[in-house]
Amino acid sequence: MGRRPVTVRLARWSAEHPWRAIALWVVFVAVCFVGGNAAGLNEATDADQAIGEFGRAELIVDSGGFHEPAMENVLITPRSGALDPAAAKAAANDAAARLRQVEGVASVGTPLPSRDGEALLLPITMSGDPETAEDRVQPLRDATAKVQEAHPALRVEEVGGPSIGKALNDTLGADFKRAELLSLPVTLAILVIAFGALIAAGVPVLLALSSVAAAMGLSTLASHLVPATDTTASVILLIGMAVGVDYSLFYVRREREERAKGRSGLDAVEIAAETSGHAVVVSGTAVIISMAGLLLAQDAIFSSLAVGSILVVAVAVTGSLTVLPALLAKLGRWVDRPRVPVLWRLTAPRTGRHGEPARARFWPAVLKPALRAPLATLVVSVGLLLALAAPALGMKLKFPGMEDVPRTTPAMQAYDRLTAAFPSNGTSHTVAVRAPAEQADRVHAALTDLAGRAAADPLFAPAEGDGAKIKVSADRRVSVLEVATPYASRTDEAARSLHELRDDYVPAALRGVPGVEYAVGGGVAASEDYARHIREKLPIVVAFVLALTFLVMAWTFRSVVVALTSIVLNLLSAGAAYGLLVLVFQGDWAAGPLGFTSIGAIVTWLPLFLFVVLFGLSMDYHVFVVSRIREGIRSGLSNREAVAYGITSSAGVVSSAALVMVGVFSIFATLSTIDMKQLGIGLAAAILLDATIIRAVVLPSLMTLLGDANWWAPRFLRRREATPPAEPPAPAPELVGAH
């Protein structure tokens, strides 16, 4: 007998030395977590995240060494009717007097009336580090609230970057905390339903949480090589819970199934290691490959997400091969305790008269059309998925703007009134210019002329107060001009104003200045440039993921056909998810039920991220199902019988795993921001489609139709296969008897 696979040898050692394996795992997790916290997080800088012309503009501004203090404003508007100038001035003077006494206020400016005379704006400059201004803004808000109490006939509000940032952090922080608190009980509830026993349900959650903790620490260490972003931790939690639960679920279900056949605990663990453990390694490799594709995007955000995801998947795979067999061996039959009475009877592994797993009736009924009429079933199901994917051809990409932030907070309501009264405080473009110091006067004159020309164009908003304000660096090499537009950041007019600046105004104004370097940035530029970046990088990432996944699947299953069909089915799944996202979010019909305001586009970063996540997670199910089909083939079943056996024997665990993911991802769809809603609904819908239509209809019909051709491979890929330890039962005669 040949050398046993590494998954079996690891499981055997862990099962025979459970306390050692558990202790080593606990030490590993603790060292990773504590070591990461000790090393500290290295966050990505603006230079790391520079993309396109927007990125160049940011770097030019940064090179000027400008001191940009945090700015706040007190906005005074009438509650009804016209603004009383005397009352507004009195309120402004009161606010100025109070705010000058507040710690953290560096200076209070002169009140500025709006062009229509219906608002008064009092600018406030904060002291200290602008990065921490939102943590120190509350005393200013309290002072403004007292001014409001003293002048009830007017609306007196504080609005600015720090106060908006604090309000959003409070709202979104509560959102994420609720999502995190809900995800754990939802996952546990689904697992209790899947297993019918509390300990069996708790084991996958325990492994997933410990994997997330270890990966958090490792990613902090890795941030000193690949800088981290503020979304990395959330993605580690999302991916870690998904794959950690999945891998444990596959393993535990197979171990329970083998014990139900009468095998000893050690034998059951070995068989689970050789079958489900092998599938976990392959699917984990596929997920890691998919996530590694993000590194090709040459983007600090995606690189950080890739590293975090790769680490948590690698840790989850390691845990499922080491500590999980130890836990199962130590628990033995206690893993099925305490039992939930009704659920246990429905979910407990049962065997038939000859020791094979007893068959449920639901999945054979679903599978019957695919086995009896594979061509018709394939054509209809693929046609439906292609129809669902078709809207993706009209996908538009945009960043959400300030207009898409929930208006549930007073700060955002005040922001709307601010931009209505003072349009130049809304959307703006940043014209950044770098030139030799001796050209500073010429650059200043050119930018002044540019601002004057733009003010006469309806695409731009004229500057408030004394006109264009041009910032010049201390060394006179860098000059910066803000050019406002009265349009919201994601409108076509705002995009057109950006292109007018880049293609006409700025080149014309600076033409002939020796040694000049310039770029136009700002929020609109970030959205436009990032969308272009994603369109350029998506084909490269997709090609990389497809090529490496093909190689892994061909080597694992020793079949070129299985590798090709794996890729085609996952592309079909991703395409359907894209189409569904466009259907739901680029129109208004679902805005009411799902609680969002349509931005008429998909969030720019989502298609690339969604592709790699879906491709990786979908491969989990595919590897598990095809592995069971392959078991049937290796044990001597015909192709049709093996397909029937593989689908029916894996359908329960795949459904349970998918329900966990759908439940967790759906929680993200309840968050306030449009990007989290799109991510949650896109992932949940795609996983649901993949685990049902793709795996239970398209896959069996395709593999039945291909027959023995499924397993074709060139000679160098073929090898002699060992007989699997578990004998699959004969498939249900009602499924295959017709042929």
From TrEMBL:
Kindly state which keywords UniProt assigns to this record, in alphabetical order.
Cell membrane, Membrane, Transmembrane, Transmembrane helix
Which Pfam family, just one, is annotated for this protein?
Answer: MMPL
Q: Which residues form the Membrane transport protein MMPL domain?
A: 66-374, 406-715
Localization annotation: Cell membrane
Record field: transmembrane: 22-41, 186-213, 233-252, 300-328, 373-393, 538-557, 563-584, 596-617, 642-669, 681-706
**Signal peptide location:** none
Membrane topology, as annotated, equals: Multi-pass membrane protein
| Stated name of the protein | MMPL family transporter
Species this chain originates from: Micromonospora solifontis
User: Lineage of this protein's species?
Assistant: Bacteria, Bacillati, Actinomycetota, Actinomycetes, Micromonosporales
